[in-house]
User: Fold UBP47 hydrolase from Nyctiprogne leucopyga.
Amino acid sequence: ESAAEEPRVLCIIQDTTNSKTVNERVTLNLPASTPLKRLFADVASKVGYVNGTFDLVWGNGDNITDTTPIDQNSDKPIIDAGFEPGRKNFLHLTDKDGEQPHIMPEESGTTDDSAQERFIGPLPREGSVGCTNDYVSQSYSYSSVLSKSETGYVGLVNQAMTCYLNSLLQTLFMTPEFRNALYKWEFEESEEDPVTSIPYQLQRLFVLLQTSKKRAI
Assistant:
């Protein structure tokens, strides 16, 4: 509930290095309390660079003239480091100390996108048995074509004339009171089939709308 109510910070990062053939622009929609060092870790994961081998500097946003690299080891929340909720925060990803970023080596056995992109469900209740890695450190394969749009929002795929239903689902998702009430609901697997449980499936859908890195799900 607190995560849903926390302000979000939209970061648009332009890769201005020569490490790749085509310079990429990636988007992160982060909670305002995210530490700066976590920002660097998330950027590294998304662009495929080794963390610590690149710098982030302010981009061409309004009233931004400081070109000093952002402190990548700081625990300071991004909201206290000059990032503003409710607007686009432009950053440039640059070479570090004159050297190009190191590209993360591809791990063997991770080429199957379906295996990498695991479902992220509602957080397990305290004391429950489960693999918390599925919720905290997901492994994704990123694509500049399919990545989340610069607005930070995730869409719904039209499954043949479902636009009316998609509109309703997005409206419910964007209603905080409804969304938070749904997140509080607890699914009891011993009493109900998850496949046919509408509240459970709606929980799954809302969490993906809130956390997925795709343009649409």
Q: What stands out?
A: Residues 108-146 have pLDDT under 50 and may be disordered. The beta strands are 8-15, 25-31, 54-58, 88-95.
